[in-house]
Amino acid sequence: MAGTLALATACKDNRADEVGTDADYENSANNNTIDDETILVVENDDNAKFLNEAAEMQLEEISLGKLAQQQGTSSHVKELGKMMENEHSQALRELTTLSQSKSVTIPTSITERSKKNYDDLAGKTANDFDKAYSEMMVDHHKDAVDLFEKAANDSEDGDIRTWASSKLRTLRTHLEHAEVAKKETDRTKS
C-alpha cells in the first residue's frame, strides 16, 4: 500500500510540475492522450463537415434545378434541371437518414452563398440563363466529385465512405450532362 501511495503521490507531484498555462499544456510534447483525443475529434469533425457540405450541395442543386425548369429556354437545360431536382432530392433523403444515424445535424435550407447563386441566376434570361446555369452545374459537379472522392477514400467512417462512393457514378453522370448542356448553350447566340 505504501508503494502505491508513493507512486500515486509521485504521479501527482509530476502532474503538478506539468501544470502551466493553457498554451504550455497545448504545446506539451508529452501530451499523447490529448493529441489522440484531438485527432479523434478532428476525424469526427471531418465526417460532420463532409455531411454538412454534401447537404448544402444537395439543397443548392435542388433549388437551382427547379429554377432551371422554370427559366431555362433550351431542352438540355430544362432536362438537366429536372435531373438535378429529382436525383439530388433522393440523395438528400439518403443523406438525412445517414446524418441522423451519426447524430449529425445537417442544414435544411440553402446557405447565403447558395441564395446568392440563385439570385444571380434568377436575374438572367434566355440563353444568358442557360449558359450561366450550365456553367455553374459543370463547376459544382467537378467540386462535388472531388469532395465525394475524398470522403469515399479517406473517411474513417465506413457508412460515410460507402455512401459517398455510391454517389460518385451519379455525380459523374451529372457532370457529363452539364458539359453537354454547356456545349449546346455555347453554340447558341444570345
Automatic annotation (TrEMBL):
Protein's name in the database: DUF4142 domain-containing protein
Chain positions covered by the region annotation Disordered: 11-31
Entries under Pfam families matching the protein: DUF4142
Leader peptide range in chain numbering: none
Annotated ranges, domain DUF4142: 47-179
Organism, as annotated: Flavobacterium orientale
